[in-house]
Structures are given as C-alpha cells and as structure tokens.
Amino acid sequence: MLAWTIYLSFAGALVEALLPKGKPGLARWFALSVAVLALLHAVGGFAAGMGQGRQIIVDIPWVPSMGIHFLLAADGISRVLVLLTGLAAVAGILFSWNVEHRTNEFFAFYLALIGGVYGVFLSFDLFLLFVFYEIAIVPKYFLIAIWGSTRREYGAMKLALYSFVGSAMVLIGLLAAYTTAGSHSTSLIYLAHAGLPVSFQMWCFPLVFTGFAILAGMWPFHTWAPTGHVAAPTAASMLLAGVVMKLGAYGCLRVGIWLFPHGLDPWGFSFIGVGSWRDVFAILAVIGIVYGALVALAQTDFKFVIGYSSVSHMGFVLLGLMTLNQIGVTGAVLQMFSHGVIAGLLFAIVGRIVYDRTHTRQLAELETMHLAKRLPFAAWAFVIAGMASMGLPGFSGFVAELQVLVGAWIAKPWWTIAAGVGIIVGVAYTWRALQKAFFSDTLPSAHFLEHEHDPAHELAAITWPEVTGVVMLAGVSLFVGLYPRILLDTIEPAVKALLAGGGQ
Amino acid sequence: MNYADLFRATLPETALEIAALLVLVVDLGFLRKAALKTRVVVAALLGAAGCGAALWALQIQGNAGLNYGELTLLGAGTYIAVAQTGILILTALTLLLLIDSVFTRNAGEYVAVVLMAAAGGLIIAAAQDLLVIFVGLELLSLGLYILTAFAKSSGKSAEAAMKYYLFGGMSAAFLLFGFSYLYGLSGSTSLPRVVYGTYVASVHGATPLLYLALVMIAAGLGFKVAAVPFHLWAPDTYEGAPAPAAAFIASVSKVASFALLITISSVALHFLETLHLHGIAVAIITTAGTPLPPLPIVHGFRSAWPQTLMVLSTASMILGNLAALAQSSVRRLLAYSAIAHAGYILLALAFFTYSPLSTNAILYYILTYGLTTIGAFGVVSVIERATGSDRLDSFLGLHKRNPLMAAVLLVLFLSLAGIPPLVGFWAKFNLFAAVLSVSAGPVPFALVALAIGMSAVSLYYYLQVLKRAYVMPAIDETPIKAHPVTLIVLLAIAAAVVALGCFPALLQSWIASFYPR
Q: d(Cα A149, Cα B506) in Å, to the nearest integer?
C-alpha cells in the first residue's frame, strides 16, 4: 500500500508534464487528486502498520550482479514520515492554487519531488535510497529558479550545489561501505549486520552524517536554507522546510547511526571536552538551535524569520539524534513530523496568504498595514502556528521538544541548558514577528491612507484552499499535541530496534 | 596466415570499406543531378546500412582473430566485440544526424570518410600488435582530420582541423617513438611479447628507456582520449568541426581509443597473472642466472603504466571540470566535460584488474557516454541551425521554442552530470565501485573521492545550460524546428538514457553475454 505513494507521485508527474498547456485548472485539480490519493495510501499504510514491526513491501533484484535490490520496506519511523509527506504535499498544492505561470510544469516538478521524498523514506536499500535522494534535487532547483521570488536563481543554485555536495559525500560513504562489506549487497539490513570494522566506521560516519546533515540544515552548513526558503515559491518552501530537511535528518538516523554505530564511540582522547563525533555533532546542533533563533530575532524580512527558525528547530532534531537514547531519538523523530507540519503552516501564511496579497515581506512595511484588521484569518492562523512553533503545550512541538530536552539531559545536562536558551529566544522572535506583522499600531503612511477606500487596493478575500490548508495543518499539530501516543506508539518500537543495532 | 584468414578476421572492416565505396559510387555516379537533400539522405542511409552490414559481419565472424604464426595481430570476442559493436552503432547514429545538416555539398565523400574512420576504429579496438595499432590509429585520425575540415565555407572549421592535424601529427610521432623503444627493449612488436620483454629487461633494475617509452606512448594515446595535458586540441576541434563530425570525434573515436587502452592494460596484467600461475618466467630467468624477484612484481609495465595513467586522470578530472565552469560556448563546454569524463575512465584504467569487472565498467561508461554525447551534439546542432551560434544564450527559452528538444537536453545533461536514475549515474557508480573493489588503500580512495567531488562541481555547468533552456526568459520566442529524423534519433537516445538508467542490468548483462560462460 505504501509503495503506491511513490508510483502515484511519479506517474502523476509524468502525466502533468504531458497535460495540455494553458489549462491551469485541470493541472491543479489533477495534482490535488494525485496528492490526496497518495495521502490516503500513506494514511492507510500508517493505520495498517500500527503495532507492526518492519515490513518488507517490495523486494526485486535490480542489478543482480552488484547485489542491488529494489527494496522498499517500512518501519515506524518511515510510516510517520510518509504520513508527513502526504500531508505536506496536499497542503502545498492547496497553497499553490494561484500558480498561473506554466502551471502543469510546476506541478510536474512538484510531484516528482514528492515521489523522490516518499522513495527515500521507504527505501531499505542504501543504493535505492541514494537514487531517490538525488532525484529530489533537480525538481527543487527548477521549482525555485522558475517560480521563485527574491534572488531566485542564486538561491536555487546554492541549494542545488549544497545538496549535491552533501550527496557526493554520501556517495563516497556508500561506495566505501559497499566495498568494505565485500561488494555483496547494498541492502541496509545487510550492511547493518555486516560488522564493518570500527576504524572504518570512525571515519565513514562523520562523512555520511555530515553529507546528510547539510540537507538537514546543520550549522555551519545551513546557509542554503534561509536563502533557499526565501527564494522558493510558497509550495516549495513548505516542502523544503516540511519534508526535504527531514530527508537529511532521516538519512542521518537511518544510514549514519544505523550503519555506523561505532562511529559515535569515544575517540579515546578528548580535546576541550570533546571526545567523540557524538559530542561534535551535538555541539553543532546546539549552536544551530541558539544561532538560528538569535538570527531570526534580527531579521527584517518576514520569510527570513521563518527560514532561520527552521534552522533552529532542525537543531533539535539533530540534538535528539545525538542523545542516542530512546526518549531523545523518539523526540527527534516526532520533532521531524511536528516541524514539518508547523513550518509548512508558517511558510504558507507568510508566503501565500500575506505576501501574495501585500506584495511585501518587509516587517517594517507590514507594520503599517494593520493586517490583524484587514486579514483577521491570517492573523489568527499565525497566532496558532506561532504558538505551535514556540512549543506551547497542546501542540505537537511541545511533546517533541520536551522529549528531546529530556533525552539530552540524560546524555549531558548542559546540552539541555544551552538548548533551553534557544527555546526562550524562539518565543521572542515569534512574538516579535507576530506583533510587527499583524498587531502593530504604527500609523500608516500618507500614501496608504489616500488609497484606503480605493477598491483596487482592497486585499483579496481568503479562498477556500487556503482555509482548508490552514485548518488541516493546524488541526494535525493540535491533534498530535493532545494525543501524541498516536505517533509515539509507532515511533518508539522502531527507534528501539534501530538503536539496538539489529533493526528488528 | 592466409588470405582466407585475413578476410575472415577483417570481415566487418571490409564491409565498412565496401559500403564507403558504394556510397561514393552512388553519390557521384547516379545522383549527380539530384537535389542535395536527396543525396544527403541517400548517403546517410547507405552509410547506416553499411554499419548494419558490418554488425552482421561481426556476428558471423564470431571469435576469429588474426594470427601470424604465434603472434596475435587482431583479437576478437569479449570486450573487443563489445567495443566494436558500440563503435558501429554509434557511427550509424552520427550518420543519421547528418540528414539534417547543410554544411557540405559533398555528402558522399563525408559518409565515405566516416565509414573508413570507423574501420580504423574497429582495427584499433582489436589490435594486439604495435604496428597494427599504429596503422589503425592513423586510419582513424586521418579520417577525423578530414571530417573536422569538412565545413569548407567555415573558417573555424579549417582552423580547428589545422590545429587538430598539427597536434595529432606530433602525438603520432611521439607514439611511434615510444613504440620504437619498446621494440628495441623487447625485440618484438606483439603486445604480450613486448610486455614480457620489458619485464625481463627490467628485472635487472629499472630501465629509464622503458619509462621514456611509456611516457611517449601515454602522450600519444592521451592525445586520442583528450587527457590533460594533451587536451589542447579538444575545445577548438569540438567548437570548429561540423556537428555530426564533432559527435563522431567525441563518441566513436573515444570508444575505440579506450578499447585500445583496455587492451594495453589487460595485456600487461594478463601476462603477469599467467606468469604467476605457471611459473614460466622462473625457468627462463633462472637459466639466465638471475633469481626471480618476489611477486607481485613492481617492475616493467606494471608499475609505470598505472602511475602514468593516474597522473593523466587526476589532471584531467580537475582541469576539465574547472575549465568547463568558465565556458560560454556549449561546444567548448562539452569538450571540457569530455576531458573530465576521460579523467574518470583513466582512473579505472589506472586501477585495473584482469577480470571482466574493470573492463565491463569501463565499457559501460564509454558506451553510454558516447551515446549521450552524440545526443548532446545533436541538440546543439539543431539550436545552431536555428540561432546561428552555440553560445549559452542561444539556448534561452528553449522550453518554449521546442519543448521536446528541451526535454531531451534535460535528460542528456543530467545524465552527463550523473543524476540518477539516468544512465550516466550508473556508469559512474559502476566505474568507481570497480576501482574500489579492485584496489583498497588510501590512494584509490582519495582519487575516487576527488572524482565524486569533481562531478559535484560539474553539476554547476550543466545546470548553466539547463537554466537557459528552462528558467530564464526567452529573447526570441519563434519555434525551433527539427528534422523529423533528427528528432526521432534524439528522442531514441534520450529514451535509451532513461531506460538504461532505470534498468541498468540490461546493458550489464548485454556486455556480459559476450564473455564465454
């Protein structure tokens, strides 16, 4: 059932590319129906997989002479992330309902990207995983470069090159692991049991982990994220923050930690308190949390605030992974889901609901527009999304970040203290953005007052796809926040198995 | 050796030569009054049919090599048959691209020269003897010089041909000079004996003469595959030559030259491995009074040849990719990218093993690369006809002016950059996996890492072209028309690139089917 998410998306992309030009309505409805169908399969697969361990879905020899299999499987982690992808895909299409320029090509690239993402989450063959991972790069480039806004060609090229450099590092690690394990098979399950030498894992782990972490926005390799997010069209920034950054984090967990567990062992010596790769990456994650939050506090562009907040929130995911204990890693996976939903919502509000009407993202200009009165729906949606993003109890972010912090406390208490600073700054930047963009009472400019009652100057009404999308994403975040067990019951056994090394 | 053997062993080459003569006779004899269009179509189709006949000849020829006494002149079977099949198919494709071209009024001569050059390619792919190698190389090279100069009305074409010819003549001189030293060292022109002779000669200590000879040969063959620092002709030739000729140079000539390099590398290793197995050398050398040094041996061909290739490979990967970043002409960009790709293949030749593993990975790479690059030149030639230039800016708005052509360009360039699931990615993966599984250690690993890093660099310049085609607004939106045959050929190539990428085992098992079970 889950495998159909991949096939549907790619088939949909192909059909979109062949649809007649100049019929945007057809392209939209077709894309939406494909995404909804894939989401239904994802939900179905999630429901069917409750209480189950790892299930092999498809296993066909692909390149028999090299031991490469088309091996799709799912465990709890995959199921949750596939569900997230389905939600983000549908929401992204709802929020790109107003794309009029080359609509069918837009949705073709969009669905191809989604297909690649589904593929990564479901691949249990390292090689297949890598193939899907790279398939996701090219559509991202075109989505941003063609339909983007601010400095789009720069942002798109930077994103593509960062992704490609990251994946080159992963490819080197893949080749090394494959040949070191005797060139028999690229199955993740096989490689995890292959007993790779500890000295090999010691250098291969940081290589592969960094390669994936680039896409997860790990400081100091995060710089593609803000520029890419800002340049991207709304749907693409929703996907970038919502699922593409999760690809990186997922790779760190599934490939980095699962295949090279001894890469995290202590080096045997320590340098200013850093005694293993685990310490190194945890420190980078903490820096990312605090740095992302502080930089978000200083932004003048609304979208950059959200862009840097993504860097900060993804820092929690990486920190959770580096705790290496059950609660911390579970929290990291839940944070992937939670941030995927919340960041999607935030980008949708900023990029689609606000920017497409006001044509500015500068907080200083938004201040004069009194959006709380003119776009009350947007204001309240942002209040809810902001609360979720701050990690208020009752939203998914709270449960996830709490688990990460508890896990970090068990591992090394000072990680938690440092990350706590990030949460406080997080409240500050969200509040600042909320206040400036929506609830400011700065006097409008004279020019603005002149045209206040001009009908051409009225902001367009909120449309049904926007309402649907906001309700869906906010609802999911709230539901998971109130009843986190629905995801945790699926995530926990999978994390336990993965940390035990065997994976089953 | 009698004439029947000779005929049997050179059946495909003979088929090509007959086809070449036939094309000339038909074109000059029967079609003198016909329109140029008809003549081009007839010549191209006859040429493609000649390639088909040669393929058939290759089939019925089987594994008949050409021996003279104990010496093998031409090999057959296994990788040689794969390379020869590849050469013939790629030649036919470049001929079909000719149908849309207008650069010459002498279609018959053009096709005849292509077929003769392809015959030269077949010979060097099979050659096992220094003299045969040289003859084949000259047959191929002379054809290529003529083809480069074929656009008589273009000054660039003449300039490119002159540069190519001067560099080529120089490199042939180097090659012959190197061969003469090898002959002097070993007393034979047959490759296995040369390797054996140089081995015996260097048992007593390294001989500088051998190293000199190897460097000379590397210069000669490095020129053929456009490896740095013998690459200077490539950008000018790719830019100046008529598009179908450039496609021929970039694909067929590369396949043939790499097949020759495979021969040299595997003869060098095969000799040592049989030595290892049978202990033949023990008898010979101990009678000369010298004890056999411990195997594996680091004398003779075995040490110097891979090292030379390694240097060429590293330089080509770095310089090719970096220089391509700065190009504004797509043909020059393709030339530098060809240099980079040659670097990757040379890496696999430097870490070579006498087993189908390395050979197949190299063949896989060079055949798929040849196919992709023919497609790329096909697209470039269509754009050139419409816009009059191959500058990056001529590609502006291609997705509007001809969506199919833009899609083909997208597939081919992404494949060259090595993005899955296209065939270029599998070729790279195969190649690097072969290098790493053959030789462990930090040096091969570092070089593979360099190669992968450099292919990340290459994405930038391929995207520069695709960005023009898909992203940036068009200056001129008039549709670009392509000849239906060109369109079909290009679509077929793009489809093959996608299909072989999705089912990589197809090509692998096809290559493996040439080996005896």
A: 43
